[in-house]
Amino acid sequence: MSATDPDSAFTFLSQGAIIQEFKVAGHNIVQSYPEARFYRTHNDAYLGETIGRTTNRVKGAELNNLNGRSYKLAINDGGNRNSLHGGFQGWGRKDFQGPKPVNRHGKEGVQFRYVSNDGEENYPGTVECFVWYTAGIEDGKTVLDIEYQIELIGDECDETVVGATNH
């Protein structure tokens, strides 16, 4: 698995730890854009992105009773008055470190890392996010696994809200 080899079955982007291509029989099965620049300007559907700091919607765009207080979040869910996928500049719009080639659980893969600082999109606490993509063969077919690890690393607060997925 190589992030840069044109003959690889996979293509990844550092922005949002995006998976841009997963080729099966020479055909890309990932809904994606042909050039990286389009993810910054046209990706309202969050194609291939790591979604965070939260997944889905935060009702009313407010975190209540967290660290003894409330946190107002960006309202970016149309007319629904909710916060969606971490706000206007969720993790899919951020530049991760990587892809870094790794061997994880005995499989070839790539690793991405991002630090979300306290107050980013008004979320409390500094968290570190790792994303691993690993590839293997199961029953004669190529399988791509995604694994997330997120840890509260700052001392600004005792608790925070976090959830990650891929779109």
Would you kindly provide a written description of the structure presented here, covering whatever features stand out?
The chain has one helix spanning 37-42, and strands spanning 10-13, 18-24, 27-28, 50-51, 57-58, 62-66, 69-72, 83-84, 97-104, 107-116, 127-138, 141-152, 165-166. Strand 11 and strand 12 (141-152) form a beta hairpin. The chain is globular. 34% of the residues are buried. The chain is mainly beta. The chain contains 1 helix and 13 strands, in the order βββαββββββββββ. The strands form 5 sheets. The protein has a 4-stranded antiparallel beta sheet, with no helix packed on it.
Record keyword descriptors for this entry.
4-stranded antiparallel sheet, 167 residues, mainly beta, globular, 3-stranded antiparallel sheet, 13 strands
What is the compact description of this entry?
The chain is mostly beta strands.
- With helices defined by DSSP (H or I, 4 residues minimum), what is the helix count? 1
How much of the residues is beta strand, in percent? 35-45%
> What's the shape?
globular
Distance between termini?
21 Å
Task: Report the biggest beta sheet as strand number plus sense, adding barrel if it closes.
Answer: 4 strands, antiparallel
Query: What pattern of helices and strands is seen along the backbone?
Result: EEEHEEEEEEEEEE
Mean of the pLDDT scores?
Answer: 92
Unreliable segments of 5+ consecutive residues: none
Total number of β-strand segments?
13
Helix content: under 10%
Radius of gyration: 17 Å
Q: Strand arrangement, largest sheet?
A: 9-10-11-12
Q: Could you say which structural class the secondary elements and strand pairing correspond to? A: mainly beta
